[in-house]
Amino acid sequence: MWNHGNYGSRGFNFIWMRHRLMLRLKAISLHVIGEECLEIYNTFNEVSSASMNDLLAKFQAYFVPQRNITYERQKLLLLVQRERQFVDDFITELRKQLRNCDYGSLSDSILVDQLVRGLRESRLREHLLRVPDMDIKKAVGHLLCC
């Protein structure tokens, strides 16, 4: 016959042991991380009840640098084709910087605008400005044939 009381106490003991093990793991981790990280840990809210995963997430959020969208957009706006830089390399550089700017659906339009604005040769810029309904495919096509 199955003894419900015995099974319940074993389950409780298992949960209690797991809880104590997690507390010990947390204590060891806090000891190992060093004084500077412990000071950072002490700035976190509600850490006494936080799990190890929660603590790792808090440390990651603290140490991973936050992106400054305005700064990234400014870098994009200042990009111009360098001397002896091929147009396709310039487009690649624009695309890479554009990924950091969070423009969403405007990305392609802004890419074309920045490409036209940043071209070294005014002849190419003027040629592209005459093309109606410019998109990046048209721009690249026109730049390849010029």
Concise structural overview:
By secondary structure, the chain is mainly alpha-helical. The chain has helices spanning 4-32, 35-41, 52-63, 69-78, 87-98, 107-118, 122-129, 136-145.
Written account of the structure:
This protein is an all-alpha fold and 146 residues long. The chain has helices at residues 4-32, 35-41, 52-63, 69-78, 87-98, 107-118, 122-129, 136-145. 9% of the residues are buried. The protein has two domains: 11-63, no CATH class; 69-144, Retrovirus capsid C-terminal domain (Non-ribosomal Peptide Synthetase Peptidyl Carrier Protein, Chain A, Orthogonal Bundle), CATH 1.10.1200.30. α5 crosses α6.
Mind sketching the topology for me?
Blueprint: H1 4-32, H2 35-41, H3 52-63, H4 69-78, H5 87-98, H6 107-118, H7 122-129, H8 136-145
Helix pairs in contact: 5-6
Keywords:
146 residues; Non-ribosomal Peptide Synthetase Peptidyl Carrier Protein, Chain A; 2 domains; 8 helices; elongated
Q: Describe the largest sheet.
A: none
> Which spans have pLDDT < 50 for at least 5 consecutive residues?
none
Q: Please identify the structural class as seen in this structure.
A: mainly alpha
Global morphology: elongated
In total, how many domains does the architecture comprise? 2
In the CATH hierarchy, the third-tier topology of the largest domain is known as: Non-ribosomal Peptide Synthetase Peptidyl Carrier Protein, Chain A
Question: Approximately how much beta-strand content do the residues carry?
Answer: under 5%
Write down the CATH class of the largest domain.
Answer: Mainly Alpha
Output mean pLDDT. 85
Element order, helices and strands? HHHHHHHH
Q: What is the second-level CATH architecture of the largest domain?
A: Orthogonal Bundle
The helix fraction, in percent, is 55-70%
Radius of gyration: 29 Å
Number of helices: 8
Overall strand count: 0
